[in-house]
């Protein structure tokens, strides 16, 4: 019993869960159709019961009335004996005609059930027992028939007329009524479902408009978008006002956030710029101390000098990123990217160690940009390749013109970058797990910032010939009018 209750509850929960997963319009239409089905079923049961009762009652009344007419019209009159001495009777009406007119069967018998007369094809109803009874699927009404034998009282005895009609005739009529009622219930339910769907669709149109408006706002990311407001003062209108208020609040919050970010970027840019002067002074003093001190004091000064140089590099990186974020772009001029790559390779040559640096950069590939920033971009890409590859491996930088772009590519023979990290390497302060190279995590972020400030793109593309990593930067080709200027 407990398992049955548990299974019933599980089935009920599953049904309810399936119902909750359906769209609202289907739930509304389904609820309306279910309610209509219950109402129509109740109506059909009541009407069907009353109608079938009336049909059977009318049938019984017709059978009884027809038997009464037969009794009133039918009698037998003795007039003579035949040659064998059997009595002969006159029949006032034709039993076959009377039976055919009412689709019935008539049988005349004595009180003991002995056959006396019948209509064509009439079955044997047995001896008469009561006035009204059902016999083998027939509704039979029994009436006593008078016999007149004034000239021979010997043949004056009692006979009975059994008038019967098939119950299947009225049962078929009742079944047709039930069928029509059943079809009416199904048809009414189907119409209620369709009407419910149409009504729900009309009712959900304001919600659909709100959804389209919200989807458009999500696509454009513009909280100042217009939210449609229904004419009716209902729950949908309240939802529209709530969404509109929410968007205004989000717009205000975004404005405040953007203003705060702008102030923060300007502060970082100004702070980074102001830090360059004291750092330069500190570096000069530390370099002087390193030259004049000896022993442990010299080593301490050298360590401080290395940290200060690293800090100057970090401040320069932060200044570059802050200027890019704040939109402070230095004036641009024509820059030969091939010369920039050559200068960066020359700068890294003394610290390349056992790495082999090769360059393929024909002169004359000019773009419009800031030379210092482009130098930082190339330097960061090549330093990144040297830092993350083993000694003895090759690093190659190339510049070429391709499909309307100046393409800078830096490749190495290192272990490459795992697929799960390829979308994160350009994030600020990102360093792979276990990276002990001392990198600040800003190198590739600066590469992307410089590329975008020059209307270019940077991507980590699949390596050629199974090599390690391949970074490709594409810049738009300088227009002839800009070249002349």
TrEMBL record:
Residue stretches making up the Histidine kinase domain: 270-479
Keywords: Kinase, Membrane, Phosphoprotein, Transferase, Transmembrane, Transmembrane helix, Two-component regulatory system
Reactions listed under catalytic activity: ATP + protein L-histidine = ADP + protein N-phospho-L-histidine
Compartments (UniProt record): Cell membrane
Segments passing through the bilayer: 33-56, 179-198
Keyword Membrane annotated: yes
UniProt enzyme class: transferase
Enzyme Commission designation: 2.7.13.3
InterPro entries from the UniProt entry: HAMP_dom, HATPase_C_sf, HATPase_dom, His_kinase_dom, HisK_dim/P_dom, HisK_dim/P_sf, Sig_transdc_His_kin-like_C, TCS_sensor_his_kinase
Occurrences of domain HAMP (ranges): 201-255
GO CC annotations on file: plasma membrane
One Pfam family linked to the record: HATPase_c
GO molecular function, one term: phosphorelay sensor kinase activity
UniProt-recorded name of the protein: histidine kinase
């Amino acid at each position: 019993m407990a398992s049955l209750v548990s299974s019933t509850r599980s089935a009920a929960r599953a049904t309810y869960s399936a119902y909750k997963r359906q769209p609202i319009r289907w739930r509304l239409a389904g609820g309306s159709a279910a309610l209509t089905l219950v109402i129509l079923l109740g109506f059909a049961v009541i009407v069907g019961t009353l109608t079938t009762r009336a049909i059977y009652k009318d049938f019984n009344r017709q059978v009884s009335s027809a038997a009464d007419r037969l009794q009133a019209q039918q009698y037998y009159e003795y007039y003579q004996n035949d040659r064998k001495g059997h009595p002969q009777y006159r029949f006032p009406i034709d039993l076959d005609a009377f039976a055919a007119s009412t689709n019935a069967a008539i049988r005349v018998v004595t009180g003991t059930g002995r056959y006396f007369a019948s209509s064509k094809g009439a079955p044997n109803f047995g001896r008469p027992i009561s006035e009204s009874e059902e016999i083998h699927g027939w509704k039979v009404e029994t009436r006593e028939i008078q016999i007149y034998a004034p000239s021979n009282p010997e043949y004056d005895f009692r006979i009975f007329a059994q008038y019967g009609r098939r119950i299947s005739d009225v049962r078929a009529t009742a079944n047709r009524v039930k069928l029509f009622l059943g079809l009416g219930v199904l048809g009414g339910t189907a119409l209620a479902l369709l009407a419910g769907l149409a009504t729900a669709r009309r009712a959900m149109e304001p919600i659909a408009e709100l959804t389209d408006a919200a989807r458009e706002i999500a696509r454009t990311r513009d909280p100042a978008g217009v939210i449609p407001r229904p004419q009716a003062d209902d729950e949908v209108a309240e939802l529209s006002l709530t969404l509109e208020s929410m968007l205004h609040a989000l717009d205000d919050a975004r404005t405040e956030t953007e203003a705060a970010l702008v102030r923060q970027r300007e502060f970082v840019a100004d702070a980074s710029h102001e830090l360059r002067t004291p750092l330069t002074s500190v570096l000069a003093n530390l370099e002087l101390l390193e030259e004049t001190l000896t022993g442990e004091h010299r080593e301490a000064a050298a360590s401080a000098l290395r940290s200060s140089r690293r800090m100057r590099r970090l401040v320069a990186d932060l200044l570059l990123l802050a200027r890019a974020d704040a939109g402070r772009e230095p004036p641009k001029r024509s820059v030969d990217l091939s010369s920039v790559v050559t200068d960066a390779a020359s700068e890294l040559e003394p610290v390349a160690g056992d790495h082999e640096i090769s360059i393929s950069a024909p002169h004359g590939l000019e773009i419009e940009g800031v030379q210092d920033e482009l130098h930082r971009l190339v330097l960061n890409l090549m330093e990144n390749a040297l830092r993350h590859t083993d000694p003895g491996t090759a690093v190659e930088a190339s510049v070429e013109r391709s499909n309307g772009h100046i393409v800078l590519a830096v490749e190495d023979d290192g272990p490459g970058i795992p697929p799960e990290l390829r979308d994160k390497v350009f994030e600020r302060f990102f360093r792979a797990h276990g990276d002990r190279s001392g990198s600040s995590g800003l190198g590739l972020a600066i590469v992307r910032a410089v590329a975008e400030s020059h209307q270019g793109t940077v991507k980590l593309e699949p390596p050629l010939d199974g090599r390690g990593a391949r970074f490709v930067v594409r810049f738009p080709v300088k227009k002839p009018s800009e070249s002349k200027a």
